[in-house]
Amino acid sequence: MHIDVFTLFPEMFDGPLHASILARAQEAGLLRVALHNIRDWAEGRHKVTDEPPYGGGGGMVMKVEPIVRAVEGVLGADVGRVPVILLTPQGRVFNQRIAYEFAAHDRLALICGRYEGVDERVRALVVTDEISIGDYVLTGGELPAMVLIDAVARLIPGALGARWAPEDDSHASGLLEGPHYTRPPEFRGLAVPEVLLSGDHARVARWRREQAIRRTFARRPDLLEAADLTDAERAFVAQLRAEAAQQGQ
Hints:
Layout: E1 2-7, H1 14-17, H2 20-27, E2 32-37, E3 50-51, E4 61-62, H3 64-75, E5 84-93, H4 96-103, E6 107-112, H5 120-125, E7 129-132, H6 142-153, H7 165-168, E8 186-187, E9 190-191, H8 201-219, H9 231-246
Parallel strand pairs: 1-2, 1-6, 5-6, 5-7
Antiparallel strand pairs: 3-4, 8-9
Helix pairs in contact: 4-6, 8-9
């Protein structure tokens, strides 16, 4: 996968792109991230990339010309074929389903907004999608872009050591992951559940699924409405609701 990032602060990506999974995916040739400084496409001696908004108001707005020139110059013939994603608090909220959607593409382009936002004509001319990572405001789109890159890159076949790991993650199955344990088998009076030491893989799988449902019910019950559950699992959820009602929760 190739990801083009358009930003005023390419240096912000140095740490995340050169460590852990992202570094290994790039070394293996599975991922390529190209950073493009929008200022390189600005005109004039001072390379101005922002201006006060027409009509007044606080803050500055990123200019249309440098962004559009950058995107068209880098994508070339791929303009219109490659998803161009604007990172903005006005976008659809990012989730695992969208991560899988983006991972299906060979190439993505990310535009990192700044200040009060971008000139609306950027949306009209080059943007094909808008993404937010939550209902809060950051100083720019660089951190959201890093989140998106990380979430999508780990879905590339071969990017993770265990090929089944992405499917077992929280949200990938529509549920939160249940608890995990490793050595030692007991610490400060807290023991690893016996089932995990049993060697019975079918029993372990059932326990993990049940724990995932329990944890999702306790922490994100809204996810259960859309989760792919069997009839027996839905009966289990009904039982959890009845127990919660009895406890006055």
